[in-house]
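INTERNAL TRANSFER SHEET
From: sequence group
To: structure group
Subject: Enoyl-CoA hydratase

Please process the attached sequence and return the structure record in the designated field. Keep the field labels unchanged so the import script can parse them.
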Amino acid sequence: MENSDTRLDFSQFTTINVSIENQVAHLQLCRPGQLNSMIPEFWRELPEVVRKIDYHSAARVIVISTLGKHFSAGMDLSVFTQMAKDFSGEPARRAEKLRRSVLELQDSFNALEEIRIPVLIAAQGGVIGGAVDMICAADCRYCTQDAFFTIKETEIGMTADVGTLQRLPHLIPQGLVRELAYTGRNWSAAEALAQGFVNQVYEDQQTMLTAVMQIAQKIAANSPMAVAGCKEMINYSRDHNVDDSLKYMATWQSGMFQMPDIQEAMAAQQQKRAPLYAQLLDKTSMMSKK
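Return from structure group:
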């Protein structure tokens, strides 16, 4: 089902199909013939899509999957070709331009962490290079039994630079991160599950998508305020010590802990019905009140 919100138009995007139903946004990378490689358009479209959904509070969960045999072959050759053209001119200015280019690429995946909405990944087949960078920035990862993960950059003579080396050490043991990064070897779905990188492994893509959508619906049924708070606190705690994180939690709670959602949850339990929570305010309405 296509999104019915007239404020949102995703028809102009060429690398991602977007649908929104029952508070769940489903983003599908849609270039299976090219193994969903990440062409320049993708790096602009992904952050724009997720931030647009967040900006308008159009969904409470985002699920990212892809069409075809493989999830993604990672960075497209055209991106490397464009970067190679920039290796000319005065060294300092050339380096400054390259630095800004890498920061822009990083921002595409930072968006997955920065939005208020949980992001779930449903991956099949190859998850290669930049695709590993992307899924490391998501909240939860699920895959099929034929999935494999590769920090491919090492094998092509470069250091992964869009988030894998910064986020993966928070997700799996340091020694394994180093082995995977140094060797560039394939990492199987079974090993990823054993190390806690993925939450669950499924027999095939359809089974996986059905299960992940059920998880997304369960998340979407909860208070969006509570879920957003969970994401904010978990991300903050990853990057700060326990004492700082507890103090931030107390400060957050002093403003965000209000009774309407709690009262609705208790009433719904007593009345044996699903709770009905108000949406988070979209940023348009917040700005219009200034």
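Handover comment: The first strand starts at residue 16 and ends at 21. Residues 16-220 form a domain with the 2-enoyl-CoA Hydratase; Chain A, domain 1 fold (CATH 3.90.226.10).
Transfer complete.
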